[in-house]
Specification:
By secondary structure, the protein is an alpha+beta fold. The strands form three sheets. Strands 1, 2, 3, 4, 5 and 6 form a six-stranded antiparallel β-sheet that branches. A five-stranded mixed β-sheet has the order 11-12-13-15-14. Strands 7-10-9-8 form a four-stranded antiparallel β-sheet, with helices on both faces. Helix 4 runs parallel beside helix 7, helix 9 packs antiparallel against helix 10 and helix 23 runs antiparallel to helix 25.
């Protein structure tokens, strides 16, 4: 590589020396030219035939500059300038002027000093060589200025071809029309100037449009950048190469308690304590020499200073920004005062925790790595398991498990469950150093680092052997107690069932007795009253005088006898309504509702919605119990609820009869009524249990009471 580079340099020097020798021969005529020394015979023949045989002066200048450009091709100044590019521009001008001379017929441009003219193809080659020098490194020097995606470079790429080609073309047209006498001199000049003016106007218009678009785009980008800057959750301060603040956001104003006007243009060191100002300037200068994105003062404790002089902990992230004005540094600043306090508290808590863990004697506490190997060992672990820390450190927890569990991979399974679920709690037999077993309660908790990666486990073990024995004793006692309770419960259930059967039997017996008494009253007492009435009617007819006191007394006795007969019938109907047997449940309920309304003055409405059921064929127990509950409900509504109206509906579903009874009385509180255990409510429920039905009562104070009776449909055998 170095040899190739040296060979290139040597060849460049050869070009320079040959052209210098050529130019020197022009200044000092006695000095022979290099071609005359090397090819004297050939030159003599060319001169005899009137052929040019020597290099033109401007050609020599072009080659001389090309050689220097080759030598300086890789050289670059500290400011990024490349001398080879400036030389290439001069070479371009040499070739361009020679080309102009040929186009316009001006030999002064290509026949320098009236010597030998530069050939037109040589001029074109010099133009191409100069462009090659410029664009061989497109990201450096002058080529960089025109190849960038910036507006100036875009305009340059657009305007330079126009600036080079348009005047050349317009001038050639002017010369061509003048030589061919197409226009007068004045008209030709006028057309040339007009064309140039039009071309420049078009160029200017295009420049204006492009610049306006660039300004609009830049304004949008600036607004977007400022919006992003203002919406950033952190304080942002942007600093130039001189350390001056050029831009801040609202969070920076709030953090340092300065306004924007107070910060813009000031050195950034004003925002830090004075003891850090001088060292920071040196660091800032070095950072600008090689800027990169990183955290400022990594590993160091950084401080900021508010307007009132108060210092606070902060954290800074630096990012370089390339702009038209040069490199700017963006600093994202975070106030970490609270985080520092939190970290300090955590550190203190960890220290306290470490002290407590070390001194705990009732619990075996240990830290494990991800594989279950022991890292730490407290005093409680030594007392419970019998091992010292040096005996177990680095060993696996499987050493504490019995062989059966170790063979099944239980220790690894517990660690896997803890890593998946966060923690795992188990109980089981564990082995001490002396080989004895103890019943352990174990909690394994997974630990994660700041990257949420599993870093190990915390294992807490407690010896609960005594508690285990106590629990077994209690479990045995509970089993015995449960058996006794179950036995007593069965006995109570049997007793309750017997009582319910007895209650049903008594209820049926009472209804049968009532039916018998009602029948006796209706049949025998009714017959007797009927006989007495017939005798009294006969006696009244056979009294001689119709107006004496005896006749009046007979009339009074007959009226009393009629009332006695009605009372007897009402008592008999109350004891057992014959209408149930004769006309059925629906008629009995409707009749009682009408009688109740007449007697109490409470509007009572009964509706039957039964379909396809012969109520005369209903089981007698169902009919009498529904009737009795209906009686009890209406009596309670009149006696306790002060109801104004009662609605009753008898309906059915697929398998059940449903009797809804609702009043608009004052209602009551269900819990209080349940505590009182009133006989009426108890009687209703007992009657429904006797016929395998249910009684649901709901009541709201001041909103009335609703009773829903549900009983399976059964018919007489």
């Amino acid at each position: 590589m170095r040899r190739t580079f040296f060979a290139g340099k040597l060849l460049a020097w050869c070009i320079i020396l040959s052209t210098v020798f050529k130019l020197a021969s022009l200044l000092f005529t006695p000095l022979p030219q290099i071609d005359e020394l090397l090819f004297a015979q050939k030159i003599f023949a060319d001169v005899s035939n009137n052929l040019p045989s020597s290099m033109a002066v401007n050609t020599a200048v072009g080659f001389f500059l090309s050689g220097i450009a080759l030598l300086l091709l890789n050289y670059e100044t500290q400011k990024g300038r490349m001398p080879a590019h400036f030389i290439a521009v001069f070479i371009f001008m040499v070739g361009y002027f020679s080309l102009l001379g040929y186009l316009y017929g001006a030999p002064e441009f290509y026949d320098l000093l009236r010597y030998l003219p530069m050939a037109i193809n040589t001029a074109i080659c010099f133009i191409l060589v100069s462009l090659a020098f410029l664009f061989i490194y497109p990201g450096k020097g002058l080529a960089k200025e025109i190849s960038q995606p910036l507006m100036g470079a875009i305009l340059g790429r657009f305007l330079l071809p126009f600036a080079i080609s348009m005047p050349l073309l317009l001038g050639w047209i002017r010369v061509h029309t003048h030589r061919n006498h197409l226009f007068s001199t004045e008209l030709g000049i006028t057309l040339l100037v007009s064309s140039i003016v039009m071309v420049f106007c078009i160029i200017i218009a295009i420049n204006v449009i492009l610049l306006n678009k660039n300004d609009v785009l830049r304004k949008r980008n600036e607004d977007k950048f400022k919006s992003l800057l203002e919406s950033a959750p952190e304080a942002i301060i942007i600093v130039n190469n001189d350390g001056q603040i050029v831009l801040v956001n609202r969070q920076a104003e709030n953090l340092f308690e300065y306004s924007r006007q107070e910060l813009i243009g000031r050195e950034v060191e004003m925002l830090m304590p004075e003891r850090f100002s001088s060292p920071h300037r040196n660091h800032r200068i070095n950072y600008f020499l090689k800027p990169d994105a990183r955290n400022m003062g990594k590993g160091l404790e950084l401080f900021g200073r508010k307007k009132n002089g108060k210092e606070f902990n902060l954290e800074i992230s630096l990012s370089p920004l390339e702009t038209e004005e040069g490199i700017l540094i963006s600093a994202a600043i975070r106030d970490i005062t609270e985080r520092k306090k939190t970290e300090e508290k955590i550190k203190q808590s960890e220290e306290i925790f470490r002290t407590l863990v070390t001194g705990v004697k009732d619990y075996a506490i240990m830290m494990l790595d991800v594989n279950g190997n022991i890292l730490t060992w407290n005093e409680g672990a030594e007392l419970i398991k019998g091992y010292s820390e040096t005996e177990v450190k680095g060993k696996n927890i499987s050493m504490f498990y019995i062989k059966e569990e170790t063979g099944k991979g239980i220790p690894a399974l517990i660690l896997n469950m803890a890593s998946e679920q966060g923690s795992c709690e188990t109980e089981g037999w564990r082995v001490k150093k002396d080989g004895t077993l103890f019943w352990a309660d174990v909690v394994v908790t997974a630990l994660y680092d700041t990257n949420n990666q599993l870093s190990g486990f915390a294992k807490v073990t407690r010896d609960i052997t005594e508690r285990k024995k106590t629990e077994e004793i209690l479990a045995d006692f509970n089993r015995q107690l449960s058996n006794q309770v179950q036995t007593k419960t069965t006995e109570l259930q049997e007793t309750a069932e017997q009582l319910r059967l007895l209650s049903t039997h008594l209820q049926n017996a009472r209804e049968e007795e009532r039916s018998t008494i009602a029948r006796e009253i209706h049949d025998e007492l009714g017959q007797m009253l009927t006989g007495i009435r017939m005798d009294m009617v006969w006696l009244r007819k056979n009294i001689p005088e119709k107006t004496n006191p005896v006749t009046d007394r007979f009339e009074s006795m007959l009226e009393l006898l009629n009332e006695t007969r009605d009372t007897m019938r009402r008592i008999a109907r109350g004891l057992h309504p014959d209408i149930l047997n004769n006309l059925g449940l629906v008629s009995a309920l409707k009749s009682y509702a009408q009688e109740f309304e007449t007697r109490s003055g409470i509007k009572t409405n009964f509706t039957s919605l039964l379909e396809g059921i012969n109520d005369l064929q209903l089981d007698a127990a169902i009919a009498i119990n529904l009737y009795r509950i209906f009686q009890e409900s209406l009596t309670n509504a009149a006696k306790h609820a002060s109801a104004g109206a009662i609605e009753a509906v008898l309906t059915q579903d697929e398998n059940n009869l449903l009797l809804h009874i609702q009043d608009d009385g004052k209602g009551f509180i269900m819990n209080e009524a349940a505590k009182k255990k009133t006989l009426g409510l108890v009687s209703m429920r007992e009657r429904m249990l006797a016929i395998d039905g249910t009684c649901q009562i709901t009541s709201v104070p001041l909103e009335g009471t609703t009773i829903v009776l549900t009983v399976p449909i059964k018919f007489k055998s």
